[in-house]
């Protein structure tokens, strides 16, 4: 903490440091933002975790969460705001951290804050003809203003890219330029496509079979979850988290529960912590299984898809017996678990572990050694570690590039500090590495479950929680290792029973933005494999 | 019936069957059109630009190579049918034919025409 | 003769080993027959219609369309344990021209609505829509959102609704069987006209 304070004060002496916060928080003036950002980047803070827009009623602001990639627990929270609500603008940081290119577009979409010198200031999720900025507190939600559109927008509105800069008189100047030239061959990949793993719309400019440029369009499943959370109570918010990234729903719900529990000072009993960890690891296995199955399906191996889904059904049987749900398990609540585990739970899990080990060997025999599979995956889509950090690619895809970013090791939560497991790292960062790392992580998850399943402590499964959950005013964070990466939650509370602002950091947005540099000069058929190996889930991106 | 007559009967039957399928479908099928049905399908988004544009020459190369080896396969079939009656002489002639084509394949391989660039 | 045929119609629809009494919502099918009769369509099934409808209902090819969580349960129905290949439905077509039914699984949002309408229009008749999950029936858990369409029947006409969040694969199979029963009532050469959905979400025209 001392070191961070020194760094910030040397770059911006008038920064305001906040006391008693979970993370080191500093507020700086917008004029100093570029200087501080460049200084931090030079000092090794190369991982921009998150960029959260905020509406402080009298001003509009942005919160930056930045950490060094080799010491991720050391997070700086930088806040800045501008009182101008008519034409709010802040300088861009997208030349320092590449992922800010998309994060700033998201903030513009929701709050209307223009980032000057950003190369592409379009909206990210909503249509270009949407009126208003939804997350502002004075947003007019009249459905007549924004009716259901009848036609897909014209090509021009997809491709005319505005960019803003400040001229010598301090005024905002807008310039537009076309994204693709007239004679480029642009193909639509998605939103309805069997290989996009959801509704992702990529506009790909092709030259023969080689990809020249990819322009992703999101928002086809944007449900406004963060805005909805502002009008819900804390227990009501839990149900939305499982629908964000539905393949690892329990891990998302765990993150929100842990954040609220830490904030409200509720201590979760050890029994609940152990069971939460076991179920999270089962979810990780299920998610990797379906990621593997869909990736092989995209390559044409439908047998592998059926095999993966067969084994995933066994995990869902375990969930169904204990919790009642298959995909949406709905098991964690604030304070612990909704009900105690079924008496058969431990036996079922113990039967599952050797079965899964046997099946993984079968998968390798079926698919990994196949020369066609090997030829399609090896030496394709190489993502270097620096690029992975700049783009915020965490999770198995980041670890395949050699970046040790496992949140379970950096900031252990639940029962992860009580178990021994290896963080699997590969060096090359190609499609084949991302493929192998998922199967190896299943083995590590089985190891974790084995260490915990016989030692579940007796006791309560839920702490005593007041009927209306209120958390004291302040800002709270929780990071969780999702099956796809670093899933973080930020809650800003004013002491009420509804939060003031909730932000979910989506690991999958980085995975998709990594497609653009990765697929440069690759064939379009390789794009399918690269996106399969990244294994993203679109509702997590769109929220 | 001589083989010529059999051939003509088969030919006419093929024409009758195919045209019957098409004509009956045209006469009795229910019909409905709307504006979107006539537009090309590209994952739900309207297409951009024209389709009459310059193609990359690599596609032509692949098509030509495929055509060559496909014709070679077609020419192998008659020999395979009467292989026994032609004996060793037939085998030698077909091997000579194949040898020329393998030379062509080796040339294309060495020149990198089988890779996509 | 007509009353007897109505009774015979609904009682005689053969679906696997299930009897008509096992299905809920038989009143809907009786009303459907009455409406078809009113508009002059012939519903008395002869043997030819029986055969055609048997073939049609047992090879309805779904369109690969899934937006969110219900899509995963759709994949589970396609997988080995709950297998919809038993019904003849396993050939999922990616192109709307070749698909018969669209399982609208997942939330439909304002940005996706015109795309869905376009895909539905590009499908060739006879086409059916099954709305899977509460998001496509009414907006589901996201009904308060500013960007979610409150039910896909505001955009396209729906034949079967399968509630759940997400519905179990068995529930989806039940919905599929209900659609099969509806198909078995139709006369292929005089298919009922599909209703159109106007801009304010009302269906008009056609026999529902």
* Quaternary state of the chains: heterotrimer
General shape of chain C: globular
Q: Helix count of chain C?
A: 7
**How many E-type strands of chain C?**
6
Element-by-element helix/strand order of chain C:
HHHEHEHEHEHEE
Main traits of this protein?
heterotrimer; A: 543 residues; alpha+beta; Beta Polymerase, domain 2; Cytochrome-c3 Hydrogenase, chain B; 3-stranded antiparallel sheet; 19 helices; 17 strands; globular; B: 117 residues; mainly alpha; 2 domains; 3 helices; flat
How does this model look, in words?
The complex is a heterotrimer of chains A (543), B (117) and C (208). Chain A has 543 residues and is an alpha+beta fold. Chain A has 19 helices and 17 strands. Chain A has helices at residues 2-11, 33-42, 100-111, 155-159, 225-229, 234-242, 249-264, 270-299, 302-322, 345-368, 371-377, 385-391, 395-400, 407-410, 431-453, 507-513, 515-518, 524-534, 538-542, and strands spanning 16-17, 24-27, 47-55, 60-67, 76-82, 89-91, 114-116, 160-166, 172-178, 185-189, 201-207, 210-217, 332-333, 336-337, 474-481, 486-493, 501-505. Chain B is mostly helical. Chain B folds into two domains: 1-31; 54-117. The mean pLDDT of chain B is 85. Chain C has two domains: 2-57, no CATH class; 62-175, 3-Layer(aba) Sandwich (Rossmann fold). Chain C is built from seven helices and six strands; from the N terminus they run αααβαβαβαβαββ. Chain C has a four-stranded parallel sheet. In chain C, helix 6 links the parallel strand 3 and strand 4 (160-162). The two termini of chain C are 24 Å apart. At the B-C interface, loops of B face helix 5 of C.
Short structural summary:
The complex is a heterotrimer of chains A (543), B (117) and C (208). With 117 residues, chain B is mainly alpha-helical.
Blueprint of the fold:
The complex is a heterotrimer of chains A (543), B (117) and C (208).
Chain A: H1 2-11, E1 16-17, E2 24-27, H2 33-42, E3 47-55, E4 60-67, E5 76-82, E6 89-91, H3 100-111, E7 114-116, H4 155-159, E8 160-166, E9 172-178, E10 185-189, E11 201-207, E12 210-217, H5 225-229, H6 234-242, H7 249-264, H8 270-299, H9 302-322, E13 332-333, E14 336-337, H10 345-368, H11 371-377, H12 385-391, H13 395-400, H14 407-410, H15 431-453, E15 474-481, E16 486-493, E17 501-505, H16 507-513, H17 515-518, H18 524-534, H19 538-542
Parallel strand pairs in A: 2-5, 6-7
Antiparallel strand pairs in A: 1-2, 3-4, 4-5, 8-9, 10-11, 11-12, 13-14, 15-16, 16-17
Helix pairs in contact in A: 6-7, 7-8, 8-9, 8-15, 8-18, 9-10, 10-15, 15-18
Chain B: H1 3-28, H2 57-81, H3 83-110
Chain C: H1 2-12, H2 26-38, H3 47-57, E1 62-63, H4 69-78, E2 101-105, H5 113-122, E3 128-132, H6 133-138, E4 160-162, H7 169-184, E5 196-197, E6 203-204
Parallel strand pairs in C: 1-2, 2-3, 3-4
Antiparallel strand pairs in C: 5-6
Helix pairs in contact in C: 3-7, 4-7
